[in-house]
């Protein structure tokens, strides 16, 4: 039992092998407090070479590994099921100087999104993905889950930003492809295969990331509309008229009330509305006039407030971005991140409360999300012992609307049993063949993504 720990101590140093329960605890429960499990120990390697040596030691001992970045994942993929060695990547935290000619940068997997943003902005560039967990979420975890966030509309999700990777395979082999060439048709694209593979095929240790122009002039509109259909009408107008549109988000009155009482925010409008849309434009010159013009011509607008100064932008965004924390403060939510074609969105939103209530009438459903992608974050509070039944009913409803059971959070452990609702038997079989080829012993993140 201790032989492996001794070997791990020799690789990373005794201070970075945590065996004591109190020291392991912060790594063993996810951010939502819904997923928890006991690790055999927590190991914190500081270099790719150490990650590779840790993997080789675990492989030789036949002990599975669970990989963790900032522990902000929402589908239970980064916490142990029980007995794994938990490999935390937060000590992999080097950033290289920005390559302004290529508009790229190479960073370690444990670098937080916020640090990456600060680093890119200091060089006059920006990173294309942004999300509310920016201060903790790490580059490696964001690649592993193909994270999305609030600017997918403009720049695509994480996969689109990754130009190359360094990763450790399940036998300790290190794959390095960090050149970031714009065109490179020399066989299988391992980078894109690993992006979104949720740590089941390899451990990402470093990444070559594309950067985008820094757009200093921003305008945000918080708009009150009647319902989801009106929100979609507004989105259509915004997409047609605003070339600088960079975000379009949605939330509803019950979410607004929760956020207001949690974050002590004033009511944004005199009268409550059926739904609220956040639109953001970003450019080199102030986009406020274009936003106001679009709002003035849209029949969907009941009321609107627009800001372009730093404090105003933060204030309007906080109505949307504080949802996750406000919901978690109210209880342990069953979080279901789904997306449907835009034409199905309104019907889904209408049918969801009845679907949840049919399982457990006392549950509370809070819906918000990324309007442009038809990506809703469904948060069900007070499910009691019915979390699995609620998940089943909701995911089946989403599938009936031709949607995906995981839009941007990944499948993890939370949704692995329902993967067949979104992928065919043939696709799942092909995924299993890839998994078996790269990780024949099933060492990396067992139980994540692919159903047992
Ligand atoms: C968000 O868009 O805020 C995140 O995906 C987090 C969440 O769903 O709670
Ligand atoms: Zn999201």
From TrEMBL:
Cofactor (UniProt): FAD
Keyword Oxidoreductase belongs to the record: yes
One Pfam assignment: FAD-oxidase_C
Any one biological process term the GO annotation gives: respiratory electron transport chain
Keyword terms, alphabetized: FAD, Flavoprotein, Oxidoreductase
All residue ranges annotated as the FAD-binding PCMH-type domain in the record: 35-214
Any GO molecular function: FAD binding
Matching PROSITE patterns: FAD_PCMH
InterPro entries per the UniProt record, alphabetical: FAD-bd_oxidored_4_C (IPR004113), FAD-bd_PCMH (IPR016166), FAD-bd_PCMH-like_sf (IPR036318), FAD-bd_PCMH_sub1 (IPR016167), FAD-bd_PCMH_sub2 (IPR016169), FAD-linked_Oxase-like_C (IPR016164), FAD-oxidored/transferase_4 (IPR051264), Oxid_FAD_bind_N (IPR006094)
Keyword presence, Hydrolase: no
Family: Belongs to the FAD-binding oxidoreductase/transferase type 4 family.
Protein name, per record: Oxidoreductase
Organism: Phytohabitans flavus
């Amino acid at each position: 039992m201790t032989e492996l720990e001794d070997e791990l101590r020799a690789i990373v140093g005794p201070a970075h092998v945590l065996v004591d329960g109190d020291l392991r605890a912060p790594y063993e429960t996810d951010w939502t407090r819904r997923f928890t499990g006991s690790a055999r120990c927590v190991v914190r390697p500081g270099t790719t070479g150490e990650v590779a040596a840790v993997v080789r030691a675990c492989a030789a001992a036949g002990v599975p590994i669970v990989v963790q970045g900032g522990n902000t994942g929402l589908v239970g993929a980064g916490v142990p099921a029980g007995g794994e060695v938990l490999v935390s990547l937060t000590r992999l935290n080097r950033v290289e100087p920005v390559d302004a000619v290529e508009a790229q940068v190479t960073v370690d997997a444990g670098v937080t999104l916020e640090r990456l943003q600060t680093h890119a902005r200091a060089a006059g560039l920006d990173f294309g993905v942004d999300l509310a967990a920016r201060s903790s979420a790490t580059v490696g975890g964001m690649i592993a889950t193909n994270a999305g966030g609030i600017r997918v509309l403009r720049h695509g999700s994480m996969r689109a930003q990754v130009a190359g990777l360094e990763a450790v395979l399940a036998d300790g082999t290190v794959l390095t492809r960090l050149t970031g060439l714009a065109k490179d048709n020399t066989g299988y694209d391992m980078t894109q295969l690993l992006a979104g593979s949720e740590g089941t095929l390899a451990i990402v240790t470093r990444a070559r990331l594309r950067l985008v122009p820094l757009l200093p002039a921003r305008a945000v509109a918080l708009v009150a509309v009647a319902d989801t259909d009106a929100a979609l009408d507004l989105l259509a107008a915004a997409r047609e008229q605003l070339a600088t549109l960079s975000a379009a988000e949605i939330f509803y009155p019950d979410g607004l009330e929760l956020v207001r009482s949690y974050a002590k925010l004033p009511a944004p409008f005199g009268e409550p509305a059926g739904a609220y849309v956040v639109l953001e434009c970003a450019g080199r010159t102030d986009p406020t006039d274009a936003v106001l013009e679009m709002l003035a011509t849209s029949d969907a607008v009941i009321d609107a407030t627009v800001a372009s100064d730093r404090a105003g932008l933060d204030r309007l965004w906080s109505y949307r971005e504080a949802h996750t924390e406000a919901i978690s403060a109210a209880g342990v939510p069953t979080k279901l991140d789904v997306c449907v074609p835009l034409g199905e969105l309104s019907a889904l939103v209408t049918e969801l409360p009845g679907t949840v209530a049919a399982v457990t009438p006392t549950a509370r459903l809070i819906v918000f999300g990324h309007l442009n992608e038809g990506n809703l974050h469904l948060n069900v509070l007070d499910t009691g012992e019915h979390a699995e039944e609620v998940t089943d009913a909701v995911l089946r409803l989403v599938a009936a609307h031709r949607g995906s059971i995981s839009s941007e959070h990944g499948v993890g452990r939370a949704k692995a049993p329902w993967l067949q609702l979104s992928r065919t038997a043939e696709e799942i079989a092909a995924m299993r063949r890839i998994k078996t080829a790269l990780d024949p012993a099933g060492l990396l993140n067992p139980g994540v993504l692919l159903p047992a």
